[in-house]
């Protein structure tokens, strides 16, 4: 059985097991006993298993029913293709390679396809095995329609699952909390430790690793990209509000109060948009307030000598909060179908806003067509394993050879260690299940009534206990299920269990070989490579941002329609996406050691995201303030220190990397305009945050590390 996500706990409770069992029985019994159509019965039985067990669809009953309905045309196509290509072993194996590669790699663009891909692969597997019988295609498609209809009705009517909050609602709840914290700060009320803890905890809960499969906006289209963007900006917003609450209290001023008021109103408005309670308009309110805040902060009324350094640091932190609010508000509007024209906002940050869906899919596919992408690796590994299994099963003429492919499909993991663990457990479970099933067949003989009476209870037991118990329980109980089912379609002997044991072991061996030869370390090795590439790609962006802020050159650009240039942040954005995909898989793989104290990968991803955010927003849009030479020199030196530390961190040194920035120049406030002094503090806050991310990512903040960049 497939390795189910943690969200499958509800499956183990029995509700879904009953739905699947009833749906499978509703098609199997009438086709086998009333119509005497074994092919129809077989497909009616396996269709619910394919789309509710092998592909445990997430969400409420209505949503799962819709997923089943949308999968039927694709399932019919794979069955028809498998029926035609079953003519020879080689054509069936090549078809398996193509189907598995397209379905597995295509899931990177469509999360809904990722949910049903294993079920669609099973449909092809069933159809591509002998006998080559194109004349049975109508019965096969009839069994698919029957089983899908029964499952559709079961999802709607039997033990319907409650509707869980969507990712958009979770982001909306987080923004409500942000509005509450902003209003407390506006009232000059101290942000207590409990509120700061809630801000940070709620931000962490917005990570995709904390969301159920199928509920993550990971698609290539504009809506999913914008919703993911809104979630990322909301996480930064919560963390920045927590950091603002931890700063020493400072006298309130009109500009800060106005911006805090706008922040609270914008967060509430954005939450309403994500819930569908408000129309998706522009982010003019918070944009205008941020612009006024910048004007007042840098205008003649705010002489720099009246603004001590700590107050400017606080206001710079408040500005980062406002920037995150603008980003979240704009992304939420795009997710809700708002205007795609974004005047006044960085095109680089919302590059996807004006592109068509087809172009966005092309960008996603092209970005993952690299051996360094875990999506590409998984697609190639799965396709080669299934194609090889089909070739071996056909060449050796194994009885019920589709069990070989089913074993590869359900037992293969993203690491060789994980595959070996699953194979070991599955072999023991299959052996035990085969012994029990053999004893049942010997004892019951040809008494089909016994098998008919045991099938439904056996399915309920297998589909409820199996996913919770692991590969051993899943394979052992499923052996009993297929034995009681096949015993009703044709006469069987105890040799059926021998054939299943041989097929499962053969499939396990093929899956293990593929796991050993094709990227055996899974995302662990790719995590190191992708993070190292990210740190190298962001180093020139840090320097270019400081140069742009000082007025020496234009800021970094991101344009997916152009080739990357030296001043472009597109390579860094691409590397960040690859690293995020590797991290998502890394979180699903078991740790090699319980006391693993390696790099903090999430801090490295935060570093890359913070670099790009600063590149989008730090360079002044209305020209560069008049900076003294010593201030420009400090900006250049500090940026080069951070960039150099990032390059050293890419090597992941054992002692970590600790960055010690040069102190800001002791320039008298009267020697600079207020805007210049504010820009200098903004850059200081950004660079210090980057330095802290690098220290955390490489573990230099742990005892015993002292690699410093001075």
Largest sheet: 2 strands, parallel
Give me the number of helical elements.
25
Radius of gyration computed on alpha carbons: 29 Å
End-to-end C-alpha gap: 55 Å
In total, the number of strands is 2
Order of helices and strands: HHHHHHHHHHHHHHHHHHHHHHHHEHE
Low-pLDDT runs of 5+ residues are 1-13, 299-306, 557-567, 702-710
Q: Oligomeric state of the chains?
A: single chain
Description:
The protein is an all-alpha fold and 710 residues long. It is built from 25 helices and two strands. The protein has helices at 9-12, 15-34, 38-54, 61-85, 89-106, 111-127, 137-157, 167-186, 193-205, 222-246, 254-275, 284-298, 309-335, 357-368, 374-395, 402-411, 416-444, 448-469, 471-489, 495-517, 523-549, 570-586, 601-617, 629-649, 674-698; strands at 658-659, 708-709. Strands 1-2 form a two-stranded parallel ribbon. The protein is elongated and about 100 Å long. The chain starts with 8 loop residues before the first helix and ends with a strand. The model is unreliable at 1-13, 299-306, 557-567 and 702-710 (pLDDT under 50).
What topology does this entry show?
Layout (H helix, E strand, L loop, with lengths): L8 H4 L2 H20 L3 H17 L6 H25 L3 H18 L4 H17 L9 H21 L9 H20 L6 H13 L16 H25 L7 H22 L8 H15 L10 H27 L21 H12 L5 H22 L6 H10 L4 H29 L3 H22 L1 H19 L5 H23 L5 H27 L20 H17 L14 H17 L11 H21 L8 E2 L14 H25 L9 E2 L1
Helix pairs in contact: 2-3, 2-7, 2-18, 3-6, 3-7, 4-5, 4-6, 4-7, 5-6, 5-15, 6-16, 8-9, 8-10, 8-11, 9-10, 10-13, 11-12, 11-13, 12-13, 12-25, 13-25, 15-16, 15-20, 16-20, 17-19, 17-20, 18-19, 21-22, 21-23, 21-24, 22-23, 23-25, 24-25
């Amino acid at each position: 059985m497939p390795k189910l996500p943690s969200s499958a706990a509800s499956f183990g409770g029995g509700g879904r097991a009953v739905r699947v069992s009833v749906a499978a029985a509703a098609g199997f019994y009438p086709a086998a006993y009333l119509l005497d159509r074994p092919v129809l019965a077989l497909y009616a039985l396996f269709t619910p298993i394919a789309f509710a067990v092998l592909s445990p669809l997430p969400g409420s009953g209505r949503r799962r029913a819709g997923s089943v309905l949308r999968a039927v045309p694709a399932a019919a196509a794979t069955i028809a293709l498998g029926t035609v290509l079953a003519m020879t072993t080689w054509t069936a194996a090549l078809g398996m390679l193509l189907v598995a590669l397209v379905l597995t790699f295509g899931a990177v663009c469509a999360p809904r396809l990722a949910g049903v891909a294993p079920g669609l692969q099973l449909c092809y597997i069933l159809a591509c095995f002998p006998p080559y019988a194109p004349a049975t295609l109508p019965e096969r498609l009839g069994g698919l329609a029957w089983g899908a209809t029964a499952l559709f009705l079961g999802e709607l009517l039997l033990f319907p699952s409650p509707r869980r909050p969507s990712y958009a609602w979770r982001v909306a709840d987080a923004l409500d909390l942000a509005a509450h914290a902003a209003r407390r700060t506006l009232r000059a009320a101290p942000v207590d430790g409990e509120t700061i803890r809630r801000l940070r905890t709620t931000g962490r809960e917005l990570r995709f690793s904390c969301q159920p499969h199928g509920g993550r906006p990971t698609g290539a289209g504009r809506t999913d990209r914008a919703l993911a963007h809104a979630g990322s900006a909301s996480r930064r917003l919560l963390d920045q509000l927590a950091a603002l609450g931890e700063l020493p209290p400072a006298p309130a001023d009109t500009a800060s109060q106005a911006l805090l008021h706008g922040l609270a109103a914008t967060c509430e408005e954005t939450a309403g948009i994500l819930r569908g309670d408000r129309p998706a308009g522009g982010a003019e309110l918070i944009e205008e307030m941020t612009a006024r805040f910048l004007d007042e902060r840098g205008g003649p009324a705010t002489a720099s000598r009246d603004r001590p350094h700590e107050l400017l640091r606080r206001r710079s932190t408040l500005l980062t909060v406002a920037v995150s609010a603008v980003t979240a508000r704009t992304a939420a509007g795009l997710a809700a179908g708002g205007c795609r024209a974004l005047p006044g906002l960085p095109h680089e940050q919302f590059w996807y806003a004006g592109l068509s869906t087809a172009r966005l899919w092309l960008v996603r596919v092209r970005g993952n067509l690299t051996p360094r992408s875990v999506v590409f690796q998984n697609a190639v590994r799965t396709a080669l394993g299934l194609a090889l299994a089909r070739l071996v099963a056909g060449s050796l003429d194994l009885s019920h050879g589709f069990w070989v492919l089913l074993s590869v499909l359900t037992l293969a993991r993203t690491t060789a260690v994980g595959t070996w663990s699953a194979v070991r457990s599955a072999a023991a479970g299959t052996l035990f299940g085969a012994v029990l099933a053999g004893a049942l067949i010997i004892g019951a003989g040809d008494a089909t009534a016994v098998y008919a009476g045991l099938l439904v209870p056996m399915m309920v037991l297998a589909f409820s206990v199996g996913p919770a118990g692991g590969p051993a329980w899943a394979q052992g109980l499923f052996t009993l299920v297929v034995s009681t089912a096949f015993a009703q379609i044709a006469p069987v002997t105890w040799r059926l269990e021998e054939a299943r044991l041989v097929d499962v072991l053969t499939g396990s061996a093929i899956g293990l070989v593929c796991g050993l030869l094709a990227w055996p370390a899974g995302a662990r090795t790719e995590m190191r490579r992708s993070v190292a590439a990210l740190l190298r790609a962001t180093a020139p962006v840090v320097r270019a941002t400081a140069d742009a802020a000082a007025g020496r050159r234009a800021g970094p650009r991101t344009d997916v329609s152009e080739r990357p240039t030296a001043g472009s942040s597109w390579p860094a954005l691409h590397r960040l996406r690859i690293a995020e995909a590797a991290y998502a898989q890394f979180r699903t793989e078991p740790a090699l050691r319980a006391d693993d104290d390696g790099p903090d990968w999430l801090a490295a991803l935060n570093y890359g995201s913070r670099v790009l955010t600063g590149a989008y927003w730090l360079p002044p849009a209305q020209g560069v303030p008049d900076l003294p030479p010593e201030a420009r020199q400090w900006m250049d030196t500090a940026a080069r220190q951070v960039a150099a530390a990032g390059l050293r961190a890419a090597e992941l040194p054992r002692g970590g990397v600790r960055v010690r920035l040069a102190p800001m120049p002791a320039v008298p406030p009267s020697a600079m305009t207020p805007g210049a002094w504010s820009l200098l503090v903004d850059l200081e806050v950004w660079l210090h945050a980057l330095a802290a991310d690098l220290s955390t990512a490489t573990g230099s903040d742990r005892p015993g590390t002292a690699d410093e960049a001075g």
